[in-house]
Structure formats: C-alpha cells, structure tokens
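User: I'm new to structure prediction. If I give you an amino acid sequence, what do you actually give back? Let's try with this one:
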Amino acid sequence: MVAFDGAAAFKSIDHCSSVGRESHTVVADMDGTLLLGRSSFPYFALVAYDVGGPLRLLLLLLASPLAALLYYSVSESAGVQVLIFATFAGARVTDIESAAQAVLPKFYSTDLHPEAWRVFSACGRRCVLTANPRIMVEPFLKEYLGVHLVIGTEIEAYKGRATGFVSRSGVLVGRNKAAAMRKQLPEESPQLGLGDRETDYPFMQLCQEGYVVQPKPGLKPVPIEKLPKPVVFHDGRLALRPTPLLALLTLLWLPVAFPLSCLRVAAGSLLPLRFTYLAFRALGVRITVRGTPPPPPQKATGRSGVLFVCSHRTLLDPVILSIALRRPIACVTYSVSRLSEIISPIPTVRLTRDRAGDAAMIKRMLQEGDLVICPEGTTCREPFLLRFSSLFAELTDEIIPVAMANSMSMFHGTRSRGWKGMDSFYFFMNPTPAYHITFLDKLPVEITCGGGSKSSHEVANYIQRAIGSVLSYECTHFTRKDKYMALAGNDGTVPEPEKAEQK
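Assistant: Good question. You get back a string of structure tokens that encode the predicted 3D arrangement of the chain. For your 503 residues, that looks like this:
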C-alpha cells in the first residue's frame, strides 16, 4: 500500500482563497494552525499556575522533558497526555473552567496566525478539531472567534476533580481526529480542512480541500483590533506567556521576589511618605510624575479639599498618588481586605453602596482635606476605561483628574477570583514595577455641576474621556458588574460580614 504523502497532496495556506466562503464549513487544528505557536505548553502552564500555584507549575515544568521525549519518540498522543496529567490531576473542574474563561483568552488572542485566520474567519461555519482538552479551549474559541463547534480531548473527572486522564476516545491526534470529526459531522464533507502537521492529514483528507499552515519565522500575529471581540477583562497572575524558559525563570525568581516584595511593602507602609519615593527608587520601583500636582489644602480658608479622580489599575493607586504628592491622601474603597487596610499608609474609608450614606461620608471627608476616588469601581488591566460612576460629580466642584498607568513585567497586581490580599505583594514581586501618574488641569467651573449647565453624568463622562485621551485608552460603558460576571460568574457584590477585596 502506498503511504499518503500529505505534504504533496495539500497546498500551502497561502494558496487558499478566502473569497466566497460564506456558506462553507471549515475544520481547523489549533496549535500551529489557528495559533502561531506550535507548542501548547504555555497554555497548560497558565492553567497550572492558576489552579495550583508555583508547585503545580513546577510539576508541569519537570514533566515537560518527558512529554517532549514521548512526543517525538513515541507519539504525539503520549506527550499531550503527560501535559494533561501534570496540569489537571487533582484540580477542581470548576477551577479549570474558570482559568479557561478568565485567563487563557488574553494569551490566545495575541497568538492568532494571520493567514489561517484570513481563511478561517471568511467561512460561514467554523469548527476546531484539537488535541487540547476541550474544557481548556472552548470558551475562547466560541466567545471570541465565533467558532460553532469545538471537538477536543475530553478529560475524566471524579467528584468534581480532574483525574488527569482522558476519556476512552483518547487524545485527539491522527486517526482519532478523523474519527471524532466523522462522529460530530456525520452527514457533512467540510469544504475546508486546515492543519500544520502530519497527524492532521487524516482529518484533512475527509475535507473537500485541505491546506497546510507552514511555520514562518518572524510572522506577526493578527492585531487585536481586527478580532471579532476584544478581550477587555482577564484574570490570573502571570503577565507573560510562560514558555518553558520563562516558566523556569519565574520559578527561580520567586524565592527572591517574595522577600523583595515584603521589603517594598514595608518601606511603603512604615516610612514617612516624603521618604518613600526615594526608598522605592532604591528598591527598583519607578514612579513617574507628569503635570503639576496641587499644593496641600489650607484649612484656614474654609474651602473643601480637592477630589482626585483617578483611573483604576491596581489597589495601590491611592498609595502611589500619595507618594507622588509627598503627603497622605485619604481614599474611599469597597470591601478591601483586612490585610490591605492594615498595611495601608493612608487612611481608607469603606463605601457601603448606600448612595445617600456614601455621599454624606464623602462630603465629610472633603471638609477635612483632600480625597482620592476611583469611580470605575474596579480595576481593568487592558487599555480600556470602565464607566465612571457619577456620584462624585454631585458632591464637589474641586476636581482634578489623574491618569494612572502602570507596567508589570512578570506578575499582575490584581485578581478577581480567590483571596486578593496578595495583590500588593504580587505587584511588588515584579523585578522593576513602574507607575506613571499624569495630573490633568483642575476642572473648569463651567464643566462642573456647580456651573449650572452640566449633569453629573456629563461631568463623569467628560473626565473619563479626558483621562482616556491622555492614556490612549478606549472609553467603555462596562461596569464592575460586567467585569465580575465575565471573570468570576457573579456581580461583584460582597455580602456582609465576610467582605473580601474585589479590586
């Protein structure tokens, strides 16, 4: 029997036309086809860290040489099975689902193959056939790429926890892929089949046309603005796609990072604010200030303090603002963790979500001095601004907008799920975390509610646009509720008395 020569039978994806495909069905592999990266290790590593922390990531990293050996010497299926076992064994299925929904889409969306996406997005019905666990890839594919059917490896679970093994159908590679496609599409012969390796050829043979996505070094991924839906919210601690090398460097850095973070937190909490800026600089924390900050309020004049209205990037925004001003500025918060309150070097007062009570409390604090507020109500990592609550605009005309931005090279200093008392520590665990503060001009009287012509909503929207323009961020109508529904499956409301930080 003559062996099937897929390389000769299938043309390169470059020769595939995307015109007139609206009524066609496409079936595509994922790693190396829809995605530029041919290895699924980074995505398993992201899930591993999210569901099990550093120890789970270490287990996966130690298992990866065995996975690679089996992949190239035994079978692709055996290599993938090792990665699945190391990542999933003993993990709660709900945690895996949460990581797939909240963590992975950001990283998948920045790795799309431009040629494969050109053809894939042109087809009316889109199907993905992958060796990756379906539970891991389905949320991104369906929600962000408009995929109609995801056929992936099914994992086994017992009493809500993954066993680390796969179902009887096995890992979907080679002929298993072809059999799975026949089962899910029994009456169809898809017009297009896209793959990148020999184990994809069996299912590509079942399609009317097959094209190979060949690796091209230096090829740029699809720009995020060209995706059907942007990733506005995402979760997880790791800021970079963890290749095996980056995963190793992250694990080696942790024993240094945590003591360094504790030292930085202690400097921010214990030193007078006029010295904290220099201490942070000596410890590798960069704070850049642009614009002209106002002088301290003069209580003798009888005027209320200034309200600093900030974009919200991490829990540390009010603290960093106080360091930039060299004096403590009180801030209002919602359900901040007790640990964060204890280590905070500035006064914090909790909002109650009772509009009248919160308004009275804010007015009282402004009579005592300056105040900082983040009207988005929660943080956003991406270059977007959430909708600004308008309550602050009704309470004072002394408003100074402040554009806050930061940069983190290894860890994110925010999280929507789990215990978030570690947020400040994770921010300071980055080798050189940085904050950029831009003070805008004080709001003119005619733009405030006191000017008589502007409503509180108009004032809030004006400030949102002003800050967005400085930061080159897109203004949105998303709210705290939208964020928590997307990332945690709830509306972000924390019941009494067990409030946990939701920033």
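You can read the tokens as a compact description of the fold. Here is one thing that stands out. Residues 13 and 211 are 5 Å apart (CA to CA).
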